[in-house]
Amino acid sequence: MFMSESSARNENSERVPTGISGLDEMLGGGLLSNSVAVVKGAPGTGKSCIGMEYIAKGIRDYGEPGLIITFEEFPRQLYRDALSIGFDLREFERRDQLRTIFTTPAVFLREIQQPGGIFDRTIEEISVKRVFVDSMTQLERITQDPVELREIMYTFLNGLLRYNITAVVTQEDAYITGNMSVAEAGLSYIVDTIIQLRYVEISSSVDRAIFVLKHRASDHDKRIRRMSITSQGVRVEEAFEGREGILTGNPSVSRRVRRAEEFFK
Predict the structure, then answer these.
(1) CB 136: neighbour CB atoms within 10 A?
(2) d(CA 153, CA 139)
(3) Less crowded by CB within 10 Å, the N or C end of the chain?
(4) Which residues pair with 40 in a beta bridge?
(5) CA angle 155-157-161, nearest 5°?
(6) For residues 84 and 79, what is the distance between their CA atoms, to the nearest angstrom?
(7) Are β-strands 252-253 and 243-244 bridged in parallel, bridged antiparallel, or unpaired?
(8) What is the pLDDT of residue 208?
(9) DSSP code string of the chain
(10) How far is CA 249 from the centre of its chain?
(11) What is d(CA 131, CA 120) in angstroms, rounded to the nearest whole number?
(12) Angle 103-92-42 (CA atoms, 0-180°, nearest 5)?
């Protein structure tokens, strides 16, 4: 099979483990080094939990300092949420292994374009290797023009990748269940990896689902798997078996399982 030079380079490039074992398995070992991954989902699906664990595990398990950029929550809220899944971000900050920037999208966009700005200084001061941005959706408040917004997205993400860092960003999904909307402002074309989170109703109970929609120039697990949020972090579990229509939010028993049940009646 023909593989371009860039594809071959990406396929053999270094992997950056998220530290979330089931997710790293889905990603073939982790994210591509010096890339951007977007985690998409409705409110409460676990986007921020994945981002915070990515930063915390990078510091704790791999000795890679991190930077969190938040447009939505005050740092104290992030610290509280991180503690609930087993990670003490304040302690990482005290050790000078983590920095948190809370600002507006417009202000940070200006800063990221300025050599020697707060972004550059922070990256250099603690040798940041991992960045988590929560959330890209807030950039949409800068302009209503889709062409201009796409340029803003490009500028923002290219600014992140000026250094040898690997970034995870979140984006709000307007749909709780059912339809997906992956191409807002062209973000799906810009990023290297898309991780989609969904709510799924099974037997009158709501579960979380996770799947990898895109992993540029790299093979990945195509299955839709269960995901849970625990006091020890995010847990990616086995695939939904015996169900079809998972992405509708209200799956049914698969035809194969129904036939088997009818056979054994």
Answers:
(1) 26
(2) 8
(3) N
(4) 171, 196
(5) 110
(6) 9
(7) antiparallel
(8) 94
(9) ----HHHHHHHTSPEE--S-HHHHHHTTSSEETT-EEEEEESTTSSHHHHHHHHHHHHHHHH---EEEEESSS-HHHHHHHHHHTT--HHHHHHTTSEEEEE--HHHHHHHHTSTTSHHHHHHHHHT--EEEEE-GGGGGGS-S-HHHHHHHHHHHHHHHTTSS-EEEEEEE-S-SSS-----GGGHHHHSSEEEEEEEEEETTEEEEEEEEEEETTS----S-EEEEEETTEEEEEEE--SEE-GGGTS-EE-HHHHHHHHHT-
(10) 20
(11) 13
(12) 50
Q: CA 215, CA 236: separation in Å to the nearest integer?
A: 17
Cα–Cα distance measured from residue 148 to residue 213, given in angstroms and rounded to the nearest whole number: 25
141 has a pLDDT exceeding 60: yes
What is the radius of gyration, based on Cα positions, of the chain?
A: 19
Instruction: Give the pair of three-digit tokens for residue 11.
Output: 């396929």
For the record, the structure tokens of 187 come out as 């973000």
Q: Which amino acid is at 185?
A: A
Cβ neighbours around 27 below 10 Å, total: 24
1-55 tens-digit pLDDT: 223 333 333 444 689 999 998 999 999 999 999 999 999 999 999 999 999 999 9
Cis check: omega of the bond before 218, within 30 degrees of 0: no
pTM of structure: 0.85
